[in-house]
Amino acid sequence: MNLAALDKTIRQLMRKRNTPGLSISVIKDGETAYSKGFGCRNLKQQLPMTSDTLLGIGSITKSFTAFAIVKLQERELLSLDDSAAKYLDFEPFKSRPEITIKHMLSHSSGVPSLDAGMLSFSYTFNDFSRIYPASSRADFEAHLADAGDFILFKPGEKFFYNNDMYTCLGFIVEALSGISFEQFVRQEILQPLGMKRAVLTRDDFDKDPDSNGMTGYLFESENGRAVAKESEMPMDGYLHAPGGLYVSTNEMLNYAQCLLNKGEFNGQQLLTSESVSQLFSGAISTPYGESENPQYGLGWSIEESSEKMPYVVIHHGGGMGTSNSFLILVPALNLAVCAVENAGTGITPLICRAVVSTAMGQNPEETLEDFKIARALDEIEGTYKSAYNMYSLTVLRKAGVLQVDMETDDGSFSFPLIPSDIENLEFSVYSLRANSKTKVVFYRNKDSQKVEYAAYDRFLYRR
């Protein structure tokens, strides 16, 4: 697998997104194929990011929680088909015994996100615009119980990504194991996998023996520009089970290899192959994926094979504000990729998919749609003028949305553009009418091949 071009791709994406630092590690056929850090783990001190830097993987932690639950099932302490009310004596579970542990793991309980445990995010970032009583365990349970009017769907009917359900799964782990969730994960998963530096608490993070932990960054707007600001990082509270793990990408390869090996690592069977199959079996349709009908399993998103991607792809991402992560497994290629950044610029999924594309012998910049879209947007942004400079059409990005500000003989308008044929630079104009046929189409100069023209309605604009 030739990853020589990957360095340049990562640097280009980091420059474009202002990403402070990024760590990536790749395992192929049981061997580390690529492991590297880019940029800084701390900008002010100019400390380099490495593949051994502890980084917040956010919601990838949910896969560890699912791992813990199926481990308890193997010990016959629970069944995935058990009613959650058997272990959680509070609402919404008490009056809805049909909600099972499997529903909670697959975000198919029918309970929408209530954010009982997410206050630590806001408070960590000095955002006190939302204040509600959910800090103690009793408050947490009451917050869930008070929201019955927002539960409209039966279990299995609707996908609602729900961090609180995973916090509750952590309660189940604690109740059945007799130890804290953090202790159970460390004892039963991290230590057997040789993930010696991985931590779930702030205290352990600060005690890292290598003193190689991330500094988190949030972006604030200053004079119209997004500026990175050093920030405290979300930890502890009710984040442990849904998103609290801090780990290096190098150690994440041990976890990935165990899963690719169907539960075995260094001769030890941490999970049975049947349990791993359960983790990777789709339970409900989810928007998190690029296949025609991606599924959410137990702590994982699953994309079935297709003509475009002939292999099953299993993945999960995570976002903590001060970090962004992605872990992707392709069992048929015996390949896993983990990338984490110390900000929220969102480049990790694209980088991981670029590695998969490279492993398939492809050029990711030619095959991945995100690269095609980025290239097209770079080509078309700017201001165009109609004949005799009578009217202008400006293409720009605002808050991540492609927008046109334009003048015509009917007046001035602003509206988002929606890609309809990115290869031919054709965009639909946003409209409340589902069948609107209005387009903005860009054309290249026949000689230079540079985009110079934009056509809208009766006008042709030139840049």
From TrEMBL:
Keywords annotated in UniProt: Hydrolase
Domain Beta-lactamase-related stretches: 6-343
Pfam families documented for this protein: Beta-lactamase, Pab87_oct
Superkingdom per UniProt: Bacteria
The keyword Chloroplast belongs to this UniProt entry's keyword annotation: no
Domain Pab87 octamerisation: 366-454
GO MF: hydrolase activity
InterPro entries reported in the protein's UniProt record: AmpC-like, Beta-lactam-related, Beta-lactam/transpept-like, Pab87_oct, Pab87_oct_sf
Protein name per the record: Serine hydrolase
Organism of provenance: SAR92 clade bacterium H455
